[in-house]
Design brief:
373 residues; elongated; Glycerophosphate_synth; 14% strand
Length: 373
């Protein structure tokens, strides 16, 4: 069984499901809580999709689950409304971000899973350290990788090949993409208007792409940005998440603590300017692990940092970063191979591991049933 909280999760699961169905001939039941999930439209004899909205029936479904294996991208299993089954189920957590586990997330967000499909060595180190500190039994930490990053790499290459055949766009105006995280301490909620104004005055083409949570939680912030700069010829507003055209057209990203900045730098080999706003912290004891979170340690490798009180320095910092692009590309290629498992083969390996675990747990279930007979 694969569980999806929302339709946005489909692009994490689709390729895995294809591999399980087509290459490994494994049956998959896809349970989603989003009636608009694209997975509900998939048609394959080994695939069954069910929509169970959030609420009582979903809670009951989780409590009584009888699957051998359940795959999720949902954190905090057993901590909130959705609990582990009363039956023996093997839970697999699928990491879909390069960010660390112990600062932005709760300390116990990943404790309930039996297997965790890790993006890179940092996930393994962080999870093993927590297991040791809490006295947990060692779990199955599978060296998975990051299919989204692989997709970004291939799409960037295709975009570049296509762009070379066309007339350059904004050749004299470098394109700056502002795509921060969300919340009261994020760029758009604190200093977005000032930053955009400075960049436009410096001659940059600016694309503002707020996080979807910003649109939901503080729509007035977005409306204010659009009202202030919507008429400027070098300002562009975009509200599409995912690998949209703005990622490929941009020359540089401005962000804060969004893990998407790591994907941008490693996948597109483009620099990032970080506005040094307060860290996003859900685990107040994150320092007890003794490991610097990836979101923090990567910032100086991926570009430059500017303080919110010194935003007037942003245009010059951007110009300097763009001048160093050739060296930056090589650095990102080297870091990518060190930080991410199985680039170009994560889906195949991940599907095989899911199938292996499902077969193993099915044999254990059959043995239990036989012993009770």
């Amino acid at each position: 069984v694969i569980y999806s909280e929302s339709g946005q999760d489909w692009h994490y699961f689709e390729a895995l499901i294809n591999s399980l169905n087509l290459n490994l001939q494994k049956k998959v039941t896809y349970v989603t809580s989003d009636s608009a999930d694209s997975g509900l439209d998939r048609d394959h004899p080994l695939f069954k999709a069910i929509c169970i909205p959030e609420g009582f029936f979903l809670t009951l479904y989780f409590n009584m689950q009888k699957a051998d294996v359940v795959v999720l991208t949902m954190m905090d299993l057993d901590n909130l409304q959705l609990k582990k089954s009363i039956n023996p189920v093997h839970y697999i957590y699928l990491f879909h971000s390069l960010g660390s586990t112990h600062m932005v997330d709760h300390a116990n967000s990943y404790d309930a899973y039996d297997s965790l499909f890790c993006v890179g060595p940092h996930h393994v180190a962080e999870l093993r350290k927590r297991e040791s500190m809490q006295g947990f039994e060692a779990r199955n930490l599978f060296e998975y990788g990051h299919p989204r990053l692989e997709n970004l790499l291939s799409r960037a290459q295709a975009y570049q090949q296509g762009a070379l055949q066309e007339e350059p766009v904004n050749a004299t105006n470098p394109v700056v993409l502002i795509a921060p995280t969300w919340g009261d301490q994020s760029i758009f909620n604190t200093c977005g208007e000032e930053l955009i104004g400075l960049l436009l005055d410096a001659g940059y083409h600016v694309i503002a792409r707020p996080h979807y949570q910003t649109l939901q939680m503080t729509p007035e912030v977005v409306e204010s940005l659009k009202a202030s700069y919507g008429g400027h010829e070098n300002f562009e507003y975009q509200d599409r998440m995912g690998e949209s055209d703005s990622l490929f057209r941009s020359d540089i990203l401005i962000s804060d603590w969004s893990a998407m900045a790591i994907e941008y730098a490693l996948g597109l080999e483009k620099p990032v300017l970080f506005v040094d706003l307060p860290r996003r912290i859900r685990n107040p004891d994150w320092q007890a692990l003794g490991i610097e979170p990836q979101e923090a340690s990567f910032r100086e490798l991926a570009g430059e940092i500017v303080s919110p009180q010194g935003l007037d320095k942003a245009p010059a910092k951007i110009a300097a970063l763009l001048e160093r692009r050739p060296d930056f590309r090589q650095t990102m290629r080297e870091l990518r191979s060190q930080m991410v498992f199985n680039i170009s083969s994560s889906i195949e390996l991940g599907a095989r591991e899911i199938a292996r675990l499902a077969d193993e747990k099915a044999l254990e279930r059959q043995a239990r049933e036989k012993s009770r007979a």
